[in-house]
Amino acid sequence: MSVLKMKLHWQILIALVLAIVIGLLIERDTGLFGVTLYGIFAFLGELFLNALKMLIVPLIVSSIIVGVAGIGSSSNLGRLGGKTIGYYAMTSLLAIIVGLLVVNIIQPGVVEGTAEEVFGLTASKSDLEAQFADKGATDIVEIFLRMVPTNVVAAAAAGQMLGLIFFSLLYGFFITRLNGNYAQTQLDFWNGVFEVMMKITELVMRFAPIGVFALVAKTVTDTGLEAFGPLALFFFSVVIALGIHFFVTLPLLLMFIGGVKPSRHYRAMGAALLTAFSTASSSATLPLTMECVEKNAGVSNRTSSFVLPLGATVNMDGTALYECVAVMFIAQAYGIELGFATQILIVILALLTSIGVAGIPAASLVAIAIILTAVGLPLEGIGLILAVDRLLDMMRTSVNVFSDSCGAVIIAKSEGETGILENDVPTPARA
Predict the structure, then answer these.
(1) Is residue 431 part of a domain?
(2) pTM of the entire structure?
(3) Each residue's pLDDT tens digit, 161-175
(4) How many other CB atoms are there within 10 angstroms of residue 392's CB atom?
(5) The domain containing residue 307 runs over which residues?
């Protein structure tokens, strides 16, 4: 999977450059035999977005059920497991809140002109405004009501992802409470569904360069380079938010909860952070992360072997932050001001989807599609962020890995382990 992801980086970057060049060179009516290139771009882009939509329901259900059942059945799930899950939930939530604050302050998607003029988006602003007009703080109660759907199949068909996620969490949890062969049969079935969905997702993502090319070329043909100004502001908004979490939030947790010096931990994790940035894969970086945490930071294998593999699967601080900022940016691009209740829903969904779909290639695209569908925004907005997604993916993966390592240190200290980050100069880890 990591090999696929590394290849996709280069293919998507090449597709992005070609899309910008071709989009600048052609006009909307450029074509042959009555078929315009713009029409081809629109068709391929919509086809790619439809493929993402197709994945949403079976992927989110199977991934959450398998993940929750796997955690719940772990023999290590006791005090250590409770601390680990609590830490991961806390840091992901803090990351999302940081992202939400930054995007509301900077407002990268707020521009002069309409969404169609600036970004090439076709959805009607008036229709979207009518959809969000009656939402307010009192609708927080509605969020909790939507968590318990009267018909889970109807909820899935209607795109009510919050209810579907809640049902999947319950289903996965109670699989672990079954006796004998029933539990194993259920787990085998959902593992099979998840593996099938992974294969289908990999197939769809092989065509991601074509989808990126089509969506970006369509936007550039419509607007020229005008959309890249707000996009650059979006890029820096994400970088600023990731920087705050990486250099402020996590070090404060290390100091005040773990009782260790953050500067020593940065040095200890240097090799793993560089590898995470270059591969954009937490899973591919996991062996080196474990080596840095054990040899350089002094965490025991007992703690690291449980905390880090689980973190590489479910702890995605940078991804959750990015999802939140991306959805808010897309809403701003349409000229829609999301109310407090809708932003709370985005926070909840970003937290849950960062766990549920973290292990798949280009997980953020699927997660963003889930959140957009849940809050009622068009999926065409994904095309806005594809131009900068690859580089941001490398950055947020580094944040994900650093958060995992901070969790290992903090939990090890809470377990009474000694010798954590006591050396000023860590032993160099193998690259």
Answers:
(1) no
(2) 0.80
(3) 778 888 888 898 899
(4) 22
(5) 3-415
